[in-house]
Structures are given as structure tokens and as C-alpha cells.
Amino acid sequence: MTQQHISILVGSNNPVKIAAARDAIGQYFPDAHIECHGMHAPSLVADQPMTEAETKLGAINRAKFCQQHAIATHQPANFYIAMEGGVDQFDHGAATFAYMAIIHQDKLSIGRSALLPLPPKVFQALEAGEELGHVMDRLFNTENIKQKGGAIGLLTQGLATRGSIYTQAIVLAMAPFIKPAFFAE
């Protein structure tokens, strides 16, 4: 019996995002050999998306770029996965979240992470043009937190991390590919 081989191309070189994609897909296919690589993929949105719509579009753009690159280089993958973190102002206050875009066999599935409330002074810094990772590094005296636990890890005392939230959101976004008969039109 041959082992199933699954290839994933992630629209980022951030090790947190690559690990989240590998971990999420690995939960669905625990016996498979999973090959997961990242690449720079432009979001075509602001470096710090400030709305849900912009954040979702950034994830979709990154996933589509990965797919187009793979097709152009004749190195197709089973899954093209992109994550885009963003913030928005909700009726309960400012929060950060991420959108996931997964392409499999030319079908797109979108998922979103849980919301993390943001302190008002953090959101004000974002409105002034800063990126969340930089603001958190300054406030918590950390370095490059976006490639580690993220704002999520800092504000939850490590009970949740950027990686754990991304992994969960990817697991959820995979549902249409895992149970396609239930999602058929």
C-alpha cells in the first residue's frame, strides 16, 4: 500500500502560517506524507487591512497567486492556502482576525478565525498607519512577534497563538473539501 502524498503551497514565507497549514491538513490526513512550502504571494491590499472585506480579499488574492504560479511552473499542488490578518471596528469594539482562502481542484473555500478584541490604543495606532505586529512589538518589548505567537499569544498569555487560531480556521475552511457531497449545488 502506498502512502498518500499531499502537496500544499502557502501564500507566505512566514513559518507560523506554513506550520498552521501543514498542521491543519495533517489532522485530516494523518497517514499522508505532507509536503508544505511557502512562497511570497502579494495580497494586493494594504499591509495592514482595516476591514473584513479587505482582509478576505487579501487572502483570496494570495491563494490565487499561488495557484497561478504553480500552474505556470508546472508544479501543481493539492492545496493552495493563504492567510491574511486584519482588523475592523465592530459594534463591540475593535478586533483582529484572519481570513483563510483554500483552493483545491479549482474550488475556493473561505474561512475566518475567531475575533481577538484589541485595546483602543492599539487600534488607534493601526488607524494611524502602523501594522499590528509592529505595535505589539513596541508595547510588549518583543521582536517580530508576527512570526511567533502574534498579538493573540501576547493578549491571551499564550493560551491561544497565531498558529493555533490559523490552524483551527483552516480546519474549518476545509469542510467543503472533506465532505464535498454536502456542499454540492
TrEMBL record:
Keyword annotations: Hydrolase, Magnesium, Manganese, Metal-binding, Nucleotide metabolism, Nucleotide-binding
Cofactor: Mn(2+); Mg(2+)
Enzyme Commission code(s) on record: 3.6.1.73
One Pfam family of this chain: NTPase_I-T
Claim: Hydrolase is one of the keywords in the record: yes
Cofactor mode of binding and number, as noted: Binds 1 divalent metal cation per subunit; can use either Mg(2+) or Mn(2+).
InterPro entries to which the protein is assigned, alphabetical: ITPase-like_fam, Non_canon_purine_NTPase, NTPase/PRRC1, YjjX_NTPase
One function term, GO molecular function aspect: metal ion binding
GO BP: any one term: thiamine metabolic process
Catalytic activity: ITP + H2O = IDP + phosphate + H(+); XTP + H2O = XDP + phosphate + H(+)
Stretch forming the signal peptide: none
Non-canonical purine NTP phosphatase/PRRC1 domain ranges (all copies): 11-178
NCBIfam families for the chain: inosine/xanthosine triphosphatase, PRK05074.1
Entry similarity comment: Belongs to the YjjX NTPase family.
Assembly mode: Homodimer.
Stated role: Phosphatase that hydrolyzes non-canonical purine nucleotides such as XTP and ITP to their respective diphosphate derivatives. Probably excludes non-canonical purines from DNA/RNA precursor pool, thus preventing their incorporation into DNA/RNA and avoiding chromosomal lesions.
Protein name in the entry: Inosine/xanthosine triphosphatase
